[in-house]
Amino acid sequence: MGTGPTHRRQPVELRFRMANVLGNGAGVARGMAPSAHIAIYKVCWLNGCYSSDILAAMDVAIRDGVDVLSLSLGGFPIPLYDDSIAIGSFRAMEWGISVICAAGNNGPIQNSVANEAPWIATVGASTIDRKFPAIVRMGNGKILYGESMYPGNHLRSAGKELELVYVTGGDRGSEYCFAGSLPRAKVRGKMVVCDRGVNGRAEKGQAVKEAGGAAMILANTFLNQEDDSVDAHVLPATLIGFAESLHLKGYINSTRRPMARIEFGGTVIGKSRAPAVAQFSSRGPSLTNPSILKPDVIAPGVNIIAAWPQNLGPSSLPEDSRRVNFTVMSGTSMACPHVSGIAALIRSAYPKWTPAAIKSALMTTADITDHSGKPIMDGNKPAEIFAIGAGHVNPERAINPGLIYDIRPDEYITHLCTLGYTRSEVFTITHRNVSCHEIMQRNRGFSLNYPSMSVIFRHGMTRKKIKRRLTNVGSPNSIYSVEVMAPEGVKVRVKPRQLIFRHINQSLSYRVWFISRNKTGTGRMSFAQGHLTWVHSHQSFYKVRSPISVTWGYKQ
After folding, report:
1. Which residues form a coiled coil (predicted)?
2. Cα–Cα distance between 526 and 547 in angstroms, integer?
3. What digits encode the pLDDT tens for the residues 302-317?
4. Which of 81, 208, 453, 506 yields a CA-CA distance of 20 to 30 A from 325?
5. For strand 478-485 and strand 526-536, is the pairing parallel, antiparallel, or unpaired?
6. Which fold has domain 403-407+448-552?
7. Assign residue 459 a region: left if phi > 0, alpha if psi is -120 to 50, beta otherwise?
């Protein structure tokens, strides 16, 4: 959200034919949802985003009659009754507004996912198949792969062979290239290696530049592994992965006068596997709401070319005097608006759908394979369910999901009661004075009609039953049969195994039994994953998939 309680409305359909970042990634920029309008509300300032501002802006947006709220905001998981976004989004959901939120950038740590409320669509980040290669050619002839948004070899300062220097030791943070930490006598005219972390990536380049350095190699550490989020650096620079950084430092330490050059390769499309999970994307399972699988989906969030204001350079540093219409950014804050745009498209096609129906369409049609037909990867291994949720959004399929899992506002309140919330805590979120004791008496064995399934076997439990309700939004006289890939160590039984829909908007229910084959008394937490899919008997396009997560040994 951007300006105000006072705000601007502008059409998304504006096209920018010469979109690029300093000549890289050139193409046509266009809004996600043609003919949609954006209302922008400012809630963040230099010192952060206050809960009061977030709630005030959401209240104004509700009064303004928006259809989708896109919040590229979030931090760490907190209880829903302390979470201003969860509280404000509940009110928005009651008014039929879809709320799409960033999952957070605290990955790959488990339980780091934010914006966990079940009425929110929580979005993690994925890579795309566009690269900006900027290789390092070392003096020994070996090549290290890197990436950069720096303009390239046509600039005089780029592509030169320079002496390498990696300044370590002392307590000034010189290995991280803090401002003022680099001795000019050691780095002047040289290519400086800076470890990633602590301070901003572009800030490191500015520190090198101010110390007289001619170029920079930004080296991933163990924490960053092979993450390749690029920047519009203020001097010739490239980012290399952790494995490459070990080779580079080994070369520096074993060579009397190490040399290297950076060779910029422009923009390369379609040569790499994608999507894959972004290393920084926050992971589940949900810390405060483990019975709901989060994140819900992932979407493009790495090296995204985004519109940029004219009063700020592309690196966002105050010293950067360059002016551009677009810059490059990474984060779940970039993934979130991709999904918000798809939600707007679905809303335009089905104006009477609830936010839960729209989220169901996004989730049950998501992809779990990449462009090559292989499993979506997370680093060097297939992505787990707590990284991708239901999978990577697929706009073409989401607009025609066949079946949806719908949820009424009262069902969310019942779900809050299952979490053990007090009357006052439920009231804080919902502004409804309810008795959870009475609600639970009326709804024994309740499970929220969520598009994904999260099963927890606590100590001594071996069986779990859940119920789901599907609504036909595809064709009349449709028959769906169930297919199950059971999580390891679990037997899954579904009844009925076939759903016959005679009419549009007809709803049918089914039940699922999960029988654990594993012992639950070991004291150790363990996980398994699978999925349940309803497949149309005649139209193979309709495959309504629900991911399943199973947890043993959960301790609250």
Report:
1. none
2. 17
3. 999 998 998 999 998 9
4. 208
5. antiparallel
6. Immunoglobulin-like (2.60.40)
7. beta
Collapsed DSSP state (helix, strand, coil) of residue 357 = helix
CB 281 within 8 A of CB 103: yes
Residues 6 or more apart in contact with residue 504 via CB below 8 angstroms: 472, 473, 474, 475, 476
pLDDT in tens, 331-348: 999 999 999 999 999 999
DSSP collapsed to 3 states, 294-305: CCCEEEECCCEE
Q: Which two tokens stand for residue 300?
A: 């493009």
Kindly state the helix (H) or strand (E) to which residue 59 belongs, with its residue range: helix 51-64
Structure tokens of 308?
Answer: 């940029």
What are φ and ψ of residue 195, in 5° steps? -70, 140
* pLDDT above 80 for 524: no
Check: CB of residue 32 under 8 Å from CB of residue 123: no
- Averaged pLDDT score across all residues of the chain: 91
CA distance 423 to 428: 9
C-alpha pair distances (Å), 152 with each of 143, 233, 275, 347: 17, 11, 26, 42
d(CA 150, CA 236): 6
What was the pLDDT predicted at 338? 96
Q: Which sign, positive or negative, has the C-alpha torsion 338, 343, 349, 351?
A: negative
Report pLDDT for 28: 86
What distance lies between CA 6 and its chain's CA centroid?
A: 29
- pLDDT of residue 46 exceeding 90, the answer is no
- pLDDT tens sequence across 31-40: 888 788 899 9
Q: How many Å separate Cα 211 from the centre of its chain?
A: 36
3-class secondary structure for 204-239? HHHHHHHCCCCEEEEECCCCCCCCCCCCCCCCCEEE
In order, the DSSP letters of 390-448 are T-B--HHHHTS-SEE----HHHHHHHHHHTT--HHHHHHHHS----HHHHHHHSTT---
Class of the CATH-defined domain 9-14+32-126+274-299+330-395: alpha beta
Cα 110 to chain centroid, rounded: 14
* pLDDT tens per residue across span 132-157: 999 999 999 999 999 998 876 555 55
In terms of DSSP bridges, do strands 48-49 and 259-264 run parallel, antiparallel, or are they unpaired? unpaired
Pick the CATH number of 133-266 from 3.50.30.30, 3.90.230.10, 3.30.413.10, 1.10.287.110: 3.50.30.30
Look-up: residue for tokens 């954006």?
Answer: 38
DSSP H helical segments within 106-200, as ranges? Answer: 184-187
**CA 176/CA 219 separation, integer angstroms:** 10
Show me where the domains of the chain are located.
Answer: 9-14+32-126+274-299+330-395, 133-266, 403-407+448-552
Strand order in the sheet with 403-404: 403-404, 463-472, 507-516, 490-495
How many residues does the structure list for the chain? Answer: 556
Strand partners, 309: none
